[in-house]
Amino acid sequence: MKRLYIETVGCQMNVLDSEMVVASLRKQGFELESELSAADVILFNTCSVREQAENKTYSALGRLRSFKKQHPEKIIGVMGCMAQKDQKLVFERAPYVDLVVGPGQLSRIPDLLGDIAAGKGPQMAVGLGRKDGTVDEIKRSHETFDPLRDPAMRPTPFQAYLRIQIGCDKFCTYCIVPMTRGPEQGRDPEQILAEARILADQGCKEITLIGQTVNSYKHKSGGKTTRLSDLLYSLHEIDGIERLKFVTNYPKDMTDDLLEAVATLRKCSPYLHVPAQSGSNEVLARMKRGYTVEDYRETMARIRARLPHAAVTSDFIVGFCGETDEDFQKTYDLVAECRFKNSFIFKYSERPGTKGAELYPDDVPFEVKNRRNNELLELQNRISEQENQPLLGQRVEVLVEGVSERTKRHGEDQGDLVQLTGRTACDRIVVFEGNTRLTGQIIPVAIYDLSPHTLFGAVVTEHVGPSLQPIMA
Ligand code: 5AD
Ligand code: SF4
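# 5'-deoxyadenosine complex -> structure
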């Protein structure tokens, strides 16, 4: 039995990629190991979206320098976006790394590990750059990696990510993803549905469809085009699946057919992540987002009209090249106006290889980025808490995910009630006491307290009559 240690940073795509790699290596006789030092193969699944994420990976690799000297037989691999972006540079910065694999080459990992073990030396597999071939060649060099799922290999059997699209063609000027994950490609709907049915058979209740711009999903075959809304209608038919979510949306592709599907389909969570990135037209134009703040407002108005109770969340970048105090004020005003359930706020990080890095100097000082970040975060936290207030005293439906971080830290007493955590359909985190047996179930929880990002509740044990049905939250 060979032992595998894997560390994952970055987005849902990376979480899913790691799951797939672990599954494929288990098939080769590997067992997952939680101690790095006890593993035979050590993999880092990396992210390049901000410099800080890369620095952390290189520091982690740096700490392995002497370890690898003492244990030359151990295999160290770097996979994911930073592997695709830095390629040979990874070997230059950490010459003891054995394996570099881009996100589009993950299916080759078992073979490459075999080559390394056979003494063939360090191995690298990456996709073509965006200018290094014809569109078809580039597409073929970035493969989606979704081997059909084995029930024994899923980390949480009742929840799953399901990839419907890889890559990105939007080319926002700050973003490295079109370079690391290649051209946008929608997966075949038949494959997506087959995978969803397998997941349902395995007891999966919640599926989150993922794609970089998930609502731009399109697949053409036999003269027919399948859109995300079409997929949702088909997935809704699958018995056992109780919740459908999808991330991340591109504001311009938030079409009426999609809003209609979310409004109509009971299993579809009224939860929409629609990153605005900035509230200033000048900044949006430099980011090449393809919409104005007026367009974004119009999209929000359509969402609110069709889905009045939907939780809408957003991402913002502060301190993008040339962002003035006035620009930032416009972002602040947009957040105040849109009342997002939550926003993820990031300080701009220049990424070599992007148009932003080529065209515009990263000229907003770090202290200014920091200040804007804190101001926007404070505003969003106030709004998040206010938006949670109406849930006080209400019953919400929670998919129980397991013991809370606090319980994990302090240990759990077998048989006793422990602190559990779960999520509502709208992705609100709920903490409550219960038996670990509840894990994987969808249960009603009465909310008695809240903070900006957490609801505190108690499991409702008595019969829930029709008038006391949990609300969609
Ligand atoms: N710097 C800071 N944040 C970034 N994001 C993407 N690229 C960068 C960058 N260069 C943010 C965007 C995106 C989220 C996933 O990460 O807000 O929506
Ligand atoms: Fe990071 Fe983007 Fe790659 Fe996800 S796709 S790992 S966020 S760079």
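# post-check
Residues 6 and 45 are 7 Å apart (CA to CA).
The pocket of iron/sulfur cluster (ligand 2) is lined by residues 10-11, 13-14, 47-49, 80-81, 176-177, 180-181 (CB under 6 Å).
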